Amino acid sequence: MGERYVFIIVGVGGTGSLLARDLPKLLINTDHKMLLVDGDRVERKNMKRQSYQEQDIGEYKSIALSAKINTFYDTHCEAIGLYLTKNEILEYCNNNYLYTPVLIGCVDNDATRKILEYTFENLERCYYLDSANGEYEGNIFIAYRYSHDGKIYGALRSKTYKLEDDVHPLDESCEVQASKGNVQFLVTNNKMANYLLEHCNALLMRQLKGGVQRVERFGSVFYSD
């Protein structure tokens, strides 16, 4: 039996929900599985650029989307309807030790990115893809480590610039949370999701490269390690 992966998508909003929508197609008839993590609930404003419909309003995004995936595909998809605090993914990976974690960050705050990097650094074997974007452009940092030497290959975002001490989603006011959702364009989110999907496909084909991908308005550049 070959290596089995669990693709853990943290943040299933603009980019993450579009990635989660298409990733199951790569996993059909395989032993790999998915985990979606997000404490947000679906709102009407999410209809325009995220993978949700009217009947999902009020549900946790991760749970609503995993239900669709399990209905339409043979890919096994689990969900956690919570914001990350620190050890949730570590505990999940310890309980699912037969799977190699592929950690995919699609979040919009550095407070959660710090938790994701902490998680990555405390897993013996892990792949980590961290996506970030604004209205027109973005980037993806790709790093990985193997259990036999513990060395980190590729690029971590915190090694390039200091992660900010911004507000964790659990600490945001209702007004701040309600104001989000209209900044990023659907086109940019689709582009980021497609590049992440391409890297997931490369991993399945044993061709994934560590490094940084800079995504611009009409193209991208990949800086390999």
From TrEMBL:
Gene3D superfamilies: NAD(P)-binding Rossmann-like Domain. InterPro entries: ThiF_NAD_FAD-bd, Ubiquitin-activating_enz. Keywords: Nucleotidyltransferase, Transferase. It comes from Allocoprobacillus halotolerans. Transmembrane segments: none annotated. GO terms for molecular function: nucleotidyltransferase activity. Residues 8-177 form the THIF-type NAD/FAD binding fold domain. This is ThiF family adenylyltransferase.
